């Protein structure tokens, strides 16, 4: 279970051993209690508060307690100071980040994302007219060519980003034009979003970012030490690297909400800067859909029937182990020298 606490003035406390959320609804004070054993994550938005007792209870039960900005993007996290695994993993990660192998990992993740983009675009075209298929055929061919170019290109973060950006523009153009007429767009808009679809996608990505960061931390990896995205102060570059193969599934989830007409004007509003913001009702609808998507077991992957969340955690653990194998002897030398 996830708790999204975003009502102004809402409070998270502990009452009789339970997590208690106090909030106002239609002018009346409401209280809801939850067993810590049933809660996996808690999101707290600006304007809410949490007691130290609630933080300690969350740590005791390994509940991720995240602080988000106005768009739902995680900007902070409470967690225990105890390490989740051996420091060997982060040593290996640091070493690989300075080697060509780091960019090879990044290339693999981007290629996986582009292939999923291609498959999704082909799926969208199945429901289009012959004229539309003919119109988009050159774009799909161009996208395919970019995948091949990425596979053949020399190891260069700048080159990878350029190819990824070109492929992404093709993908989002087709995606935006495949939506119902009132929701169509021609380019991706980030925070703040300029249209309803991108507003929902931004919020969905914020949730995905938090899940990816959590999986990396649990696997013993450093979310700030990436291979391709820029290193910068407080920039979680490994989250941005590792998230790539999981983006398209999140996009597909948001797309289905719009294509199946599950989103209406009560689910979003225009902000003072003419940007689009999701309402509480919109967040509830999106979170419910994402929850179902992440907790439903899918066809076997790696020989196992896993939920998307289990698969994400498994990928993070496997990545950590592959780093140890990549640098096994080198890490041992670093340890002995220390």
Model description:
- The protein is an alpha/beta fold.
- It folds into two domains: 2-78, CRISPR-associated endonuclease Cas1, N-terminal domain (Ribosomal Protein L15, Chain: K, domain 2), CATH 3.100.10; 88-337, Four Helix Bundle (Hemerythrin (Met), subunit A) (Up-down Bundle).
- It has helices spanning 52-60, 88-97, 100-125, 130-152, 157-177, 196-218, 237-242, 247-259, 280-295, 308-337; strands spanning 2-5, 11-15, 18-25, 28-34, 41-45, 49-50, 64-68, 74-78, 268-270, 276-278.
- A hairpin with a 2-residue loop joins strand 3 and strand 4 (28-34).
- The longest helix is centred in the C-terminal third of the chain and has 30 residues, at 308-337.
- The chain is globular.
First and last CA, distance: 43 Å
Discrete helix count: 10
Spell out the CATH superfamily of the largest domain: CRISPR-associated endonuclease Cas1, C-terminal domain
Radius of gyration, CA atoms, in whole angstroms: 21 Å
Q: What is the CATH architecture descriptor of the largest domain?
A: Up-down Bundle
Number of strands: 10
Structural class: alpha/beta
The biggest beta sheet is recorded as:
4 strands, mixed
């Amino acid at each position: 279970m996830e708790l999204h606490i975003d009502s102004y003035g809402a409070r998270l406390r502990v009452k009789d051993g339970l997590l208690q959320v106090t909030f106002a609804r239609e002018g009346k004070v409401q209280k809801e209690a939850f067993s810590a054993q049933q809660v996996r994550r808690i999101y707290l938005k600006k304007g809410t508060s949490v007691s130290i007792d609630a933080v300690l209870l969350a740590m005791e039960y390994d509940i991720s307690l995240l602080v988000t900005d106005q768009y739902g993007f995680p900007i902070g996290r409470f967690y225990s100071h105890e390490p989740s695994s051996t420091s060997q993993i982060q040593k290996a990660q640091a070493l690989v980040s300075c080697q060509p192998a780091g960019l090879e990992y990044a290339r693999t993740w981007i290629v996986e994302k582009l292939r999923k983009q291609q498959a999704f675009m082909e799926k969208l075209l199945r429901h289009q007219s012959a004229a539309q298929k003919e119109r988009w055929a050159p774009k799909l061919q161009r996208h395919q060519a970019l995948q091949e170019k990425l596979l053949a290109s020399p190891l260069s973060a700048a080159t990878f980003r350029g190819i990824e950006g070109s492929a992404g523009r093709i993908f989002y153009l087709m995606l935006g034009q495949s939506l119902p007429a009132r929701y169509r767009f021609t380019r991706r808009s980030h925070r703040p979003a300029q249209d309803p679809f991108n507003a929902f996608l931004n919020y969905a990505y914020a949730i995905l970012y938090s899940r990816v960061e959590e999986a990396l931390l649990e696997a013993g990896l450093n979310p700030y030490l990436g291979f391709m995205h820029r290193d910068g102060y407080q920039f979680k570059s490994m989250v941005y690297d590792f998230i790539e193969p999981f983006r398209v599934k999140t996009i597909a989830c948001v797309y289905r909400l719009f294509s199946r007409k599950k989103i209406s004007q009560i689910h979003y509003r225009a902000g003072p800067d003419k940007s689009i913001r999701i309402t509480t009702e919109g967040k509830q609808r999106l979170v419910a859909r994402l929850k179902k998507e992440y907790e439903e077991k899918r066809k076997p992957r790696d020989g196992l029937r896993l939920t998307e969340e289990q698969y994400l955690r498994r990928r993070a653990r496997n990545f950590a182990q592959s780093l140890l194998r990549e640098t096994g002897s080198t890490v041992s030398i670093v340890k002995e020298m220390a």
